[in-house]
Amino acid sequence: MARRRKGRDISGWIVIDKPAGPSSNAVVGRVRHAFDARKAGHAGTLDPAATGILAVALGEATKTVPYVTDAEKTYRFTVRWGVATNTDDAEGEVIETARDRPAPEAIEAALPAFTGDIEQVPPAYSAVKIEGERAYARARAGEDVALAARPLHVARLALVSVPDPDHAVLEMTCGKGGYVRAIARDLGRVLGCLGHVRTLRRTASGPFDLDDAIAFDALDSATDDMLLPLETALESLPEARCNDLAAAKLRNGNPAPVIATTAGYGEEAWASCAGRAVAVGHYRAGELHPKRVFAP
Q: Residue 169 and residue 171: Cα distance in Å, rounded?
């Protein structure tokens, strides 16, 4: 019999404004310890040098992680022109330099090509798997890593400011799997000046933004009222309201009738009873067919 993990059965979301330095997994460990939670997980990795929103789920809320992971995220980042690195950020080794610097008008003109449905090659130093092994592990071992391009939807890419000729600040909103480092790398190539990410900050992740976030150090005095409800992560799905009897059936994994919903036939929706999430499933002919249920 597997050993039961120690900790409290506590559920909800906590949004951390991650500082530069700790890894995403280290932040999750700190959160889990602060709340003495039995189970915790995050919705979208941030590199150690990156800052900003890291949404951490506790308990039953971990079942809603995919709905935040798959949602759009917004980043504000600074590109350093004239230098390419092997990691496409300031942590890597310089592999090439250029003298040219782009004018603001040239940067603006290049951005539409990186907006909409594009193909993006992830950085060699990334967590993409190659035959079961992380690309960064192969790159660190000195291998020549060649990754295939992947589809990415970029909803918005805008120039925010040009503080000096060597730097530009941009903001991007994109779907799952986007690499800001690859945008900086490819934009630098197109502009003929090279480039890499100098600073990166995530300002929104699905339903969460910086207004929801607490400072990392605030975990030293964490209280349960800091948690956001599990249901916050489900706001992109239509709600299907049900009564107590239907809620009991759904929690046992059985289809049950709903009182009201805006979901169309076959659409994914979340069932609620008295405002609390009961299950996520597909709506068909007046019933929700659960695929994931939440303990009361």
A: 7
Report the pLDDT value the prediction gives residue 287, as an integer from 0 to 100. 96
b/e code 113-136 from CB counts within 10 Å (16+ = b): ebbeebebbbbbbbebeeeeeebb
Is 286 within 8 Å of 52 (Cβ atoms)? no
Structure tokens at 277: 């999430």
Question: Annotated active-site positions, please?
Answer: 47
- The CATH homologous superfamily for domain 237-293 is PUA domain (2.30.130.10)
Query: Quick check: do 73-205 and 237-293 share a fold?
Result: no
How many residues are recorded in the chain?
A: 296
Note the pTM of the prediction, 2 decimals: 0.91
Determine the pLDDT at residue 4: 61
Decide: residue 264, CB within 10 A, 0-12 exposed, 13-18 middle, 19+ buried.
exposed
Burial readout 49-83 (b: 16 or more C-beta within 10 A, e: otherwise): ebbbbbbbbbbbbbbbbebbbebbbbbbbbbbbbb
> Which residues partner with 81 through β-bridges?
195
Quick count: other Cβ atoms within 10 Å of Cβ 3?
5
Using alpha carbons only, how large is the chain's radius of gyration in Å? 22
Which residues lie below 8 Å from residue 101, measured CB to CB, with a gap of 6+?
81, 82, 165, 166, 193
Q: Which CATH architecture has domain 73-205?
A: 2-Layer Sandwich (3.30)
Stretches in the chain below the pLDDT threshold 70 = 1-5
**What's the confidence (pLDDT) of residue 183?**
97
Q: Please tell me the distance from the alpha carbon of residue 63 to that of residue 14, in angstroms, as a whole number.
A: 14
Contact 257, 276 (CB under 8 A): no
CB 250 within 8 A of CB 293: yes
